[in-house]
Amino acid sequence: MRLMRKHDPQLAEDGFWALAPVAGEHVAELMEEFAVEKDRGLRCWLLELVEKAKSPDAFEFLAAQLRSGDDRLEFWAVEGLRLLDTKPARRMLWEWGQRPPANEAGKP
Known about the structure:
6 helices; mainly alpha
C-alpha cells in the first residue's frame, strides 16, 4: 500500500502489481483500506484488487459498489461479480441489468 500511495507513477504502479498476485490472501485488508481511502484513483485500484481476489467474502462489498452511483466503481464491481461467478453474484448482475436507464428513472 505504501508504494501505491507514492507520487511517482511507476512506484505506484509497482505497488499495485506487487499486491495483485496476493490479493486473495488480503481481501479483508483491501476492503478496509478502501473504506478509509479518500483518493478516487486509489479507491478504484483497491476495488480492482478486490475484484482480482475472486473471494466470496467480497460479495456484499462488490454489491455495495455496484449501487454506488460512481461509474468507475460500478465497472470494477461488475467485473468482480462476473469473476466471482456465484449464484448470488449472477442474480445481482441480472437485477442490475434490469434497472431502468438513469434518464428514465422515475418515469411512469
